[in-house]
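Page 42, continued from yesterday. The earlier attempt failed because a stray header line got pasted into the input along with the sequence. Redoing it now with the clean sequence only.
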Amino acid sequence: MSNLILLLQEYGVLIVFAVVLVEQIGLPIPAFPILIVAGALGVDGDFSWPAVLAVSLLACLISDCFWFGAGRYYGKRILKLLCRISLSPDYCVSQTEDNFKRWGPKALIVAKFIPGFNTIAPPLAGAMGTSNATFLGFSVLGGLLWSGTGIAIGAYFHTSVDQVLGILSTMGTTALIVLIVLLLLFISFKYVERKRFHQSVEIERISIQDLQQLMAQGQEPVLVDARSATAQMMEPAVPGAVLFNGGDPLTALAAFGKDQHIVVYCSCPNDVTAAHVAKQLLAHGYHRAKPLHGGLEAWNLAFARARLEAEELSQGMPQ
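This time it went through. Structure tokens are written below.
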């Protein structure tokens, strides 16, 4: 640990840049404590706090611009990918969409203080068509506020931080082992939390083929769009679907009988929002409510395939 502290004191700016960049990209590496330590060491003259602020801001901008470009190019697909690899529950996309709709690009100013939001907000801004200048302005403000807050906390409590560093220094490799164990425990906790979340929304799903069969039989199932209003702006809903925009699904379906087939879809990973809504409906007597496996993407693929087959059939018919 003493060698690690010496390394921080000698190459601290580069280490701060690397840790902040990795954390902002999305890996579960806590960077804020590094900024606090850097702020404390800056008071003692071991660090140049303007340099720490500059490299931290640079790392934030590199990550934000990367994800902003990915969101602009890939749209909703990059958001689904981020939630699949995230340690947070899959509601991260829908929550971010709602926050972004409420605050707009200004949400980027505080995004880095909200776990899960910091990685998803930049690609969402790109997917929503935010201009480059607007995004860059709010991204810079957000990076300055987040980095400056960490440095300021370290500077204000520098005496306490120095005492903690001194204790860690005397503990040698034991302190390093403790820190690694704490990090592994944190990752394990988030993993168990995610597994518990998935188990809470386990429910029988309906495939797109079964849905098409129901429609062919004249069953006329009710389609419910469980996506957020922002997601519906990014990608149109299925024609005729009931939209409730995160409200009360029971109110939206009050006009339908409880014996009717109800198919709930979303565009989130693993259909978790649709599964959650379907479980609500089942609990209130809608015993034929099911989430659509694959969500809106499965519907769009099936529709595109049917349209292609129809075009091929029409081209093969004699004139």
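Notes: The beta strands are 222-225, 242-243, 262-265, 289-291.
Reminder to self: strip header lines before submitting.
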